[in-house]
Amino acid sequence: MSSQVYTLEMKKISKQFAGVDALRSVDFTVHGGEIHALLGANGAGKSTLMKILSGAYRSDQGSIVAGGKELSIGSPWEAKRAGIHCVYQEVDSALVPQLSVAENIVLDDLSAPEGRWWAAPGSMRKRAREALGRLEADIDVRQYVSELTLAEKQLVLIARILTQQANTIIFDEPTAPLSEEETRRLFRTIHTLKAEGVACILITHRLPEVIEHSDRVTVMRDGEQVFTGPSSDLSVGDIVTHMLGKTFEEEFPKTDAPIGETVLEAKGLHRGLRVHGVDLQVRRGEILSIVGLVGAGKTELSRLLTGADKPDKGELVFKGRSIRLREPADAIVQGIVSIPEERRKQGVFIEETVERNLSLPLLGKLSVLGFISRRKERTNGNEVVASLGIKTPSLRQNVKYLSGGNQQKVAIGKWLHSGADVFVFDEPTKGVDIGAKSDIFRIIGELAAQGKAVIYLTCEFAEGIGIGDRIAVMYDGKIIKEFTRGEVEQEQLLLYASGGEEVHS
For the ABC transporter domain, which residue ranges apply (predicted)? Predict the structure, then answer.
């Protein structure tokens, strides 16, 4: 390697989607032999910036310079040819499970346009062992990738990258699915790469990892770079302040409702590596916000509460009696319903009409002598559309043609007349516009005013504070802190949700 330090610079990068600024004149620099953390809340623009660097998007303005030469990156292949590679948390999408470890490690060589089909099994295995040896990874190169753990798959992907003369590696939330020991091993690998002169870019929501392992930090907010500086000068609280800005002025149209008796209680829920000993309870007329960052275990918890998954240990108590939920249908019968994060896959049938989606949980009530009453179905649809303000040309419109916000209203609306007692919302405002968000907050407030118990899981801290009567913080699969409405600010939530020192105090 040359004695001159490798430097990659992104200069004045701007990007718009449908006329909306995603990035505004962003500068970002990383040096060889450096771990540079790129941070920001959801929607800050960090993923867009890295997609431009890795060739998934083209910037509208700006330039990328590496090793003193301006790069033209229009595809992931061109990025790889320039020595820029990515390690995503969904490593399965980058590996071929039916091939061996050795075959996966040399896969890019075998599929290169210029063709290098000379690779015999013996030479493939030798190259694979050499690459894994640089990472001190003890993995049998003859094994099929399908037989490996997630952490081992990450190492295989990194080993493949090392065979490609990588000078820049982007690690996008690499520790989110890993155990503590696997996380320690991964960071040992990243520090090995740093020592070899590789420029390492780390994207993570786990702020203690940033303080411990990175050399510099860049923080983005609302599509702009707002801070760059040495990690050694920062505390977790400092990073939180840069990520959120100085003010918190969000207002939520929440209707005050009398709080009644406990409806649903969870006792010591465990599920795999993602949910650890969760205790919670929610009462009639109450909105319980559960906030946490990506990978905290919120979705896994919501699936346990609604019967989509079964706990390894623990108990659910509904209206004072223990219940066992083997599937979502069991939860629905009890009166516990889910508005899941992936609404297009799990919340609605996008190929069906608005009318049919709104009637699906009510087919028994809407049927006469075993046949669905079209009059009753239409009446139900009209009532829900009017109540929730669903914008659709007609009840016969297929849901796939509605906006994200209106699709979400349909996902909520199908339960309005079901008689459910508990509503579990998982990231309900994901991908919806500001107007639809306000409508969703209003709807949730009205549910509470009707005496429904609401559990609201979100990584948007402003929403959690604004809508919740109580706010519970989830970190690493556990609920680690709880606040009542009005006694917590956004900065405190992010500090706890990021594993700040106060978590363990």
Answer: 8-247, 259-501
